[in-house]
Amino acid sequence: MPFIVGRFGRPTAWVGSPRRWVAGPRVARPTTARLRVTVDTASCVGHDDAVADLDDLLTSADASSIVARLRAGEVSSVEVLDAQLDRLDRFGGAVNAVIALDADRARAAATAADDARTAGQELGPLAGLPITLKDVFETEGLVTCAGSPALAEHVPADDADASAALKNDGAIVYGKTNVPLLAGDHQTINDVHGLTRNPWDPERTSGGSSGGAAVALACGFTTIEVGSDIGGSIREPSHFNGVYGLKPTQGLLSLRGHIPPMPGSLAPGDLGVVGPMGRSIADLGLVLDSLLGIGAFGGVPGASLPSVEGPIDLGGLRVALWHDQPDLAPVAGGVAEVARSVAAAVDSAGGSVSDARPSIEAASLHETYLALLTAAIGAGFPPKLFDRMVAQVDAGDAPSHVRTSVARFKDWARADEARHQAIAAWHTLFETVDVVIAPVAPTVAFPHNTETSYWDRTTEVDGDTRAYTELLFWAGLPTMPGLPSLVIPAGEVGGLPCGVQLIGPKWSERRLLAIGAALDAAIGRGFVPPPLVTGS
Q: Residues 162, 190: contact at Cβ < 8 Å?
């Protein structure tokens, strides 16, 4: 979610005044008070060499290659875990991405996985891979607070569906990654754990709300993650940190156990989705397959995603390039050029590139998105705050985002009809194009900007001061009609990573990943580790 509304509907990044931010992670978990970990290696013959080799691997390798090594017995789960904890010990304080640990239970689970592997037992697709998980997914026995002081001591008794699906497939969750308050900002900062920094430039944002997840991936604290997205929360952090992310079709994957809404809620909120993050297209496919294992398609029996036969030939691909929107959300020249370069790769291969758009004006699409987004968020406000906002609307002095946050059902139904008109328009567009290439955000990662309220903030786009809320335009394009969107790293602008989003028709996740793989190969960039961990 992109914002929290404060007293009397005044939009603010935080409810209450910020506490002192800590330079490194503050840990809130039942049995430990420090994030720093000492690895007991006294009884591990060759352990130091193994960790050193794995450290090199964790700098740049994807999860798929590490899983292959685990299956082949070339490395052990304990060795991977210890190498990740060692990296966290060295680099974690500089970025504050991992904010809670369950190292003891994780090591016990890793040992059990290694023993089972030695005994020839099947471990599942993730084969005892240690991972971190975004701190909005309830994780049994490990504090899950979603950046909220009110939930700082919340230790779930059960796993969210996403957490359970990964564990069922052999993943070992050893830590949680930072988020903004209730996953509600394009930057990652909260009163419980503080500010998460970008490993490409610590003075710049990691993005949000999956900022901690994206930074942990970039730094090798983990090799897969799961994000959630309603306002760009998978896509923007992926773009800002140079990793991969997939926002799936709305309704594909289960949100049960995601915070918000509050613990114990069962109804999924509107617009939001759960999706994989990783260091390669293959990693996204690996995690997507796991997440499909519990609660997918709302529990419809036998439902599955369409398969894809063979690799994608770019020469037969039909692409629409939507690289700028000057009237609503102008894009920095360097970012637009990266999007154009991806389209140029299709053109060079013999594919077709057009400027096709849905038949509905961009301003109307965005208006519908904001109406649905604010209504979805407003539904979760505490009753007293909601009532104050209603009174403000009735008094006639409420800004538009407050009015739509407390929309009456008739007004919401009007926006929902506009959404379904948009769904039809996008469906028609995808009869003539296979994928839309668009920016993820107007700029690359921008300097930290957390001192003012969400709606009062601004950003700089090629020297022009623009509204912070324009970040929502590019996030909303696929979100409002419920379309999947894949982010791949595609270049650099000013020494910072720059991605593009590939928007496809509903339920086209597997084809979208295949298109992403073909473009990934044509671009030739892939995952590039950040200067923090390479020393460059």
A: no
